[in-house]
Write a structure and sequence with these properties.
The protein has about 300 residues and is mainly α. The chain has a single domain, classed as Farnesyl Diphosphate Synthase (Orthogonal Bundle). Helices cover about 70% and strands about 0% of the residues. It has a two-stranded antiparallel sheet. Strand 1 and strand 2 form a beta hairpin.
Length: about 300
């Protein structure tokens, strides 16, 4: 079996754990819990959890140990999507082919649903049965996620992304924003499996970091391209929103040909970083091709 053959089982696994940790819609406050479940269980590609499990396969970490970081990272990702879609930010009406949370409910409920997912993510890391006897791992995973999502990570990147609208950035400035806004949570996804072990060689950690740094940049460049070329059926969102907002994106600043070339270059860098690794890394190779080329095979 290839990793592609296990993808659906991994997606079902993560959605089962999400369903377990998300409060039931019948529990008060019901509207808040409805909005949380609406947003977190709305499908999606589950790329970040898949990266967690693919990294676990590469390093020989049991899936039970990976469920908590996979769910915590997906909850934090969902939090960011709800906030990104708000009128004060990207003002999007569609997410994953459905009305965004603030459209399906209301703006205040959407904000609160997102806010509630942050502590829930850390609750998962603190209470998941597979991690209870491993406090050192819990601390490392908690610090990794907090660093990825704070002002020096995803949230800071979103702030810089908003303030860059209408500005001309050079490639290094733009890619710095991409690393924070998108790359750091992907980095946490890959490194979380390594943090579940105490004996991962430093050279292996560095190779994984090089892999995911290039992949995170490629992910965002590819998303920029799809915002222009992709259909709503492909992206689940209304196309052209970045261009309409005069956002700093690779195609907008440097042209579509340059954006495609940079995505291809970054994919090669990611693959080169793990080129000497064995077949246990095939899940990470699958993820890289899927993210950049959207090829599942």
């Amino acid at each position: 079996m290839t990793f592609n053959d296990r993808v659906e089982a991994y997606i079902a696994r993560i959605e089962g754990v999400l369903d377990h940790y998300l409060p039931a819609e019948s529990v008060a406050p019901t509207i808040l819990h409805q909005a949380m479940r609406y947003s977190a269980l709305s499908g999606g590609k589950r790329i970040r959890p898949l990266l967690v499990y693919a990294s676990g396969e590469a390093l020989g970490v049991a899936p039970d140990m990976l469920d908590a970081p996979a769910v915590a990272i997906e909850l934090m990702h969902t939090f960011s999507l709800i906030h990104d879609d708000l009128p004060a930010m990207d003002n999007d009406d569609l997410r994953r082919g459905r009305p965004t949370a603030h459209r399906a409910f209301d703006e205040a409920t959407a904000i609160l649903a997102a806010d509630a997912m942050q502590p829930l993510a850390f609750e998962v890391l603190a209470t998941h049965p597979a991690l209870r006897d491993h406090p050192a791992i819990q601390v490392r995973l908690t610090a990794l996620l907090a660093d990825a999502c704070g002002s020096r990570g995803m949230t800071g990147g979103q702030s810089m992304d908003m303030t860059s609208e209408g500005k001309r950035l050079d490639p290094a400035e733009l890619e710095h924003i991409y690393r924070l806004k998108t790359g750091y949570l992907l980095r946490a996804s890959v490194l979380s499996a390594a943090y579940c072990r105490a004996d991962v060689p430093l050279a292996t950690l560095h190779a994984l970091e090089r892999f995911v740094d290039a992949l995170g940049l490629a992910f965002q460049v590819r998303d920029d391209i799809l915002d222009i070329e992709g259909t709503t059926a492909e992206t689940g969102k209304t196309g052209g929103s970045d261009l309409a907002s005069d956002k700093a994106t690779y195609p907008h600043l440097f042209g579509m040909a340059e954006a495609r070339a940079r995505a291809d270059e970054l994919l090669k860098q990611a693959m080169d970083a793990i080129a000497d690794a064995g077949p246990s890394y095939d899940g990470l190779r699958w993820a890289a091709r899927f993210i950049v080329l959207r090829q599942r095979a």
